Amino acid sequence: MSALTQSQFFSQLKKYYSFYTGGFIAFVIVLAFLEQMGLEPKYIGYIFLAATIALYAGIGIMSKTADVSEYYVAGRRVPALFNGMATGADWMSAASFIGMAGTLYLTGYDGLAFIMGWTGGYVLVALFLAPYLRKFGQFTIPDFLGSRYGGNLPRTIGVISAIICSFVYVVAQIYGVGIITARLTGLEFQIGVFVGLAGILVCSFLGGMRAVTWTQVAQYIILIIAYMTPVVWLSLNHTGNPIPQIAYGQVLQEVTAKEKELNDPATTLGAAEAAVRAIYKEKQLAAEDKVKALEAAIAAGTADTMVGEARAALDAELAELNAAPVPDAKKIEAKKKEIAELTGPDALLAKLKKAVDAAKKGTAPVAAHAEPFSGKGAEAKLLKGNPNATEAEVAAARAEDEAASDVKRRNFIALVLCLMVGTASLPHILMRYYTTPSVREARKSVFWSLFFIFLLYFTAPALAVLVKFEVYNNLVGSSFASLPAWVANWAAVDPTLMKITDLNKDGLVQLAEMTIGGDLIVLATPEIAGLPYVVSGMVAAGGLAAALSTADGLLLTIANALSHDVYYKMIDPKASTVRRLAISKGLLLVVALLAAYTASLKPGDILFLVGAAFSLAASAFFPALVLGVFWKRANYLGAVVGMIAGLAVCMYYMYTTYDFFGGVAANEWFAIKPIAAGVFGMPAGFIGVIIGSLLSKAPSKEIQELVDHVRYPSLEADIKTQAT
Amino acid sequence: MQLSERHHEYWRKNLRLTAVLLAIWFVVTFVVIYFARELNEIVIFGFPFAFYMGAQGALIIYVLVIWFYAHRMNQLDKEFGVHEGDEE
């Protein structure tokens, strides 16, 4: 292929991928046909899993390479359009594909922080980084830090930061792969993790960046078709308009009207909701009494009797389950686990407190979807309890609401900023802009990247509203005797995704009687829209593509940082090409196994860790990278001080405020949540670079020339920095 | 190498363009969020304005900002003679 000119290469790629897209659609149609003929859903799941992984493996094998430049940067000839698609797949993780619409469903406006944060960051990539990094043209992000600031220390800090952010992120992806594989095929989660791992390795192991790039393009095409098909169908069904992004304005208004009705006890539906909320309130009070009693018993040293009583009650429940005419193995297993976890008074206390929180959630009125930063509802509560409250009392409650709302707004802004700057600092994304043929193409490529990401991200809010409409209008108020099939199916498959119980025994569904898990929204959409199972299989394959593509990019980043930056640049600069690639591939395997092992332990708080990766990347990389291009005076000491300060402040803040590390909310500054710690780390980083640089002498003439070199796409008598 | 006055002008133009586009980015993101409660009173085609901006409007503007930057900078490269050799 190397004999082709760039434009011939481009048109050939277009031909290949058009064929491929057609092939994929034909494949889905054939499966749909087979389903009509009576093929079982289970086999459809297997076929999707096997076919897509075989496809990625095929591309990986076809792209195998022994050339360093091909391995690290795909030979620097990926056209802007295709690099855009690859970046889109690289960027959109399992969380974007499966979780995003669910987050929006559950949190309404407040969830939009992720939509804006994960797209707006590309503006920063375009304006501050992509073209300059491309002109510099080496292999990794620490490469840039090493050359620009000189010495091994900035490079080393860069390597460490890159590994920290990428590793927590890749663990989350492999975890997602495990879940999807398990759901698609019914295999055990742990087996799913390792099947997925095989899918990741076959492509990155043989061909490095080159294989990952072409696989990611293929994965993008699958994931976008899988995401769009059910949403378009749902929109057409509900509104008669096939463009969900336009149609849902109307639907949103209807949802808003319904929210008001459900919150108004004067209406039939509203009265039923209020009755269910009252039941929750009783539960909450009862649970609170128990907590108080237990706390008193712990203080008096008599808690063991209470634990014994609780255990006896659970044992009785287990006996009842065992005695049922048809014993439910799943329920028995869960009950046994519950008994095993009840180890003493502290475990019981934690369990009771959880029950209080769960009941408390049920007492909350329906949140307004489109309303930003809703307060605590103190004013409404006051007026409900005491309609004759004095003006001073009302004013105090209103002030309380406003304060709560302001804190939410502040956190929203901080989170958006961290996600945006984090996006522009994550090494696995920035690395992709090394692969375009020129600065010119790198600029265009950022546009294509965001365009392809945008297609999914501006659909997610529409999907959330469409599903909400379905739930509020067709599910709420319907009879328990005739629940829609999708509700019953999902409630049976996974109670964390869909749980529904007739609390007030009126035989009708109330909104407060349902608990919906965020991931349900995307997974159940095909069924809600009344599409055949083959579409559900396709959605799962899309989620798998999203998780695999991101994991590929991240693993490569970690392995390259270790093999290229640590081994080649610092330990053995004379290493032969063969040796460099062998080391890189070996490390890739080790890192992948380590990540899969970590994921198979099912670490809690995985979502927090992903969020934390953005704050960490933003604090460690952004100041040193941007000032490295835009401020010639920035030097070695500045970079070292800035990167360490940013990272340290960010980590310190997380450590003192996040409960996973034993921190407490009382330590928060300006009530900012630990996930947005980068909002303090970034300024620390910038100040560190500036002060450190001004305290020591200006960088050498060579480095200043390097900055000029990076700033102009082409100069006469240009120095050469491009690695080959 | 020694940079000419034209080179410096190219860089100044780049900085100015970057600053203007960054200001647009800032307004559609942070100013709109800050006043979201007030802006939501305005309803267009069923969408409260601040909600619309967060869900779609800001995203469309981001895409356009990046497109414009790429287009304008690639033009400037040619104008100031710092463009790369023709690959296509």
Explain this structure.
The complex is a heterodimer of chains A (724) and B (88). Chain A is an all-alpha fold and 724 residues long. Chain A is 75% helix and 1% strand. In chain A, strands 1-2 form a two-stranded antiparallel sheet. In chain A, helix 1 packs across helix 9 and helix 8 (152-185) packs across helix 26. Chain B has a two-stranded antiparallel ribbon with strand order 1-2. Classes of the chains: A mainly alpha (724), B mainly alpha (88).
Brief description of this entry?
Chain A has 724 residues and is mainly alpha-helical. Chain A has helices spanning 6-36, 41-62, 68-73, 80-91, 94-107, 112-136, 141-149, 152-185, 189-239, 244-263, 268-300, 303-323, 329-341, 345-363, 378-385, 391-423, 427-430, 439-457, 460-475, 485-493, 520-528, 533-571, 577-600, 606-620, 622-630, 636-657, 678-695, 701-711, and strands at residues 498-500, 514-516.
Per-chain topology:
The complex is a heterodimer of chains A (724) and B (88).
Chain A: H1 6-36, H2 41-62, H3 68-73, H4 80-91, H5 94-107, H6 112-136, H7 141-149, H8 152-185, H9 189-239, H10 244-263, H11 268-300, H12 303-323, H13 329-341, H14 345-363, H15 378-385, H16 391-423, H17 427-430, H18 439-457, H19 460-475, H20 485-493, E1 498-500, E2 514-516, H21 520-528, H22 533-571, H23 577-600, H24 606-620, H25 622-630, H26 636-657, H27 678-695, H28 701-711
Antiparallel strand pairs in A: 1-2
Chain B: H1 5-34, H2 36-39, E1 43-44, E2 47-48, H3 49-79
Antiparallel strand pairs in B: 1-2
Helix pairs in contact in B: 1-3
Q: What proportion of the residues of chain B form beta strands (DSSP E)?
A: under 5%
For the biggest sheet of chain B, the summary is: 2 strands, antiparallel
Rounded to the nearest angstrom, the radius of gyration of chain A is 28 Å
Mean pLDDT figure of chain A: 87
The unreliable regions of chain B are none
In whole angstroms, how far apart are the ends of chain B? 28 Å
